[in-house]
Design goal:
Strand content: 15-25%
Number of strands: 12
CATH topology of one domain: Heat Shock Protein 90
CATH architecture of one domain: 2-Layer Sandwich
Number of helices: 9
Structural class: alpha/beta
Oligomer: single chain
CATH class of one domain: Alpha Beta
Largest sheet: 5 strands, parallel
Strand order of the largest sheet: 2-1-3-4-5
């Protein structure tokens, strides 16, 4: 065993003391640590005080059946990967336990003790492979979240640069060109039409720059920035796709965290885009509401619905919606409506109100505002 990793601990649960000693002897020869229990009660008591990496479990204990013991361990939050030990003729029961999560099974026959180390090594190798896969999957999801965060920050930076730098310069040039056009017109100069054309083009460039900046950084850093941004999204989608897109917010909802608000906006934006491009919707309704516990964002459409709702087979847009929701602690669900079309729902738990605490020297402590609050 590596010096940096503690030896594997295996708990043997069997009511035959002689057999248990033989099993422990073989496992210790392989370098494993072992412990033994002769009943389900002993096993649960041991697990309440210790940690096991693997369980060798006899199906028939004097006080409890193997399946019931597995359920009891899960209920107490002490689930342990397990291998079933069964008598000859009970292989069918062992196979059933495999379906319940057993890694393998051992039959008490003449070669039983000989096979114990082999089966244990095979089970531990499988657990190690599962752990590596889980770690790789966690790393992949972390990298995707980081890429999404970097992308969002870059979009916001470019949006600010467009608005504050390029947009201001273009606006200044537009004003100068307008003044120049008026001056030329006062002199009846032949360059007036060309100057007027340049002025019109600069005004269009200013408007285009503002639209680009708004698209890259759509949510203003104010508590009601999300509501305003969703209003603009509905109006823009109506004009862009010639559909009936409306935003409904029965009571004003404040989102004090701009990152959270931006992710919610992007989820709504993606849902509307999918409704139009893939569902061919003609009507889209964006809804935003909140109560004491939950903020809810919905996007409903009258399109053709969506197929293949399995998260593992969804396209990049739907996967990004789920990632955005995960990043802010929200949950996205997508379902076809019985009346036709699709409903995308994003629910975000509301944080509990901050409890004011006394400041030093008798001064009043400032109350920290919650991330979201309802007016």
């Amino acid at each position: 065993m590596s010096a940096t990793h503690p030896p594997v601990t295996i708990l043997v649960v069997d009511d035959d003391p002689g057999l248990t000693r033989l099993i422990e002897r073989e496992l210790r020869r392989e370098g494993y640590q072992t412990a033994a229990a002769g009943s389900g009660k002993e096993a649960t008591g041991w697990l309440q005080q210790h940690r096991a990496d693997l369980l060798l479990l006899d199906l028939k204990l004097p006080d409890i059946e193997g399946p019931a013991l597995i359920e009891a361990m899960a209920a107490m939050g002490r689930s342990v990967p397990f291998i079933i030990i069964t008598g000859q003729g009970d292989e069918r029961v062992a196979v059933d336990m495999m379906k319940r999560g057993a890694l393998d099974y051992l039959v008490k026959d003449v070669n039983f003790i000989e096979f114990v180390p082999t089966v244990v090594r095979r089970a531990l190798a499988r657990l190690e492979e599962q752990a590596r896969f889980a770690a790789a999957e966690e790393d992949r999801q972390r990298l995707e979240r980081e890429i999404l965060q970097i992308s969002e920050r870059e979009q916001q930076r470019i949006g600010r640069d467009l608005h504050d730098d390029l947009g201001q310069q273009l606006a200044g040039l537009s004003i100068l060109t307008t003044v120049l056009t008026r001056t030329l017109a006062g002199r009846a100069a032949p360059e007036v039409p060309a100057a007027a054309k340049i002025s019109d083009l600069l005004k269009e460039a200013v408007a285009m720059t503002r639209r680009l900046a708004r698209g890259l950084h759509p949510v203003a850093p104010e508590p009601d920035g999300l509501v305003s941004a969703l209003h603009d999204l509905a109006a823009r989608m109506t004009g862009l796709f010639h559909i009936d897109c409306q935003f409904d917010c029965p009571t004003a909802v404040q989102v004090n965290d701009n990152t959270t608000a931006t992710h919610l906006y992007r989820i709504a934006q993606e849902a509307v885009s999918n409704a139009v491009k893939h569902g061919h919707a003609r009507q889209v309704r964006i809804g935003l509401s909140s109560d004491a516990e939950t903020l809810t964002l919905t996007v409903k459409d009258d399109g053709g619905g969506i197929s293949g709702l399995d998260p593992q087979r969804q396209g990049m847009g739907l996967r990004i919606m789920h990632y955005r929701a995960d990043m802010i602690g929200a949950r996205v669900s997508i379902a076809n409506q019985t009346s036709g079309g699709t409903c995308v729902t994003c629910t975000l738990p509301m944080p509990p109100p901050a409890v004011p605490t006394a400041a030093p020297h008798g001064r009043k402590a400032a109350r920290k505002a919650p991330v979201m609050a309802k007016k």
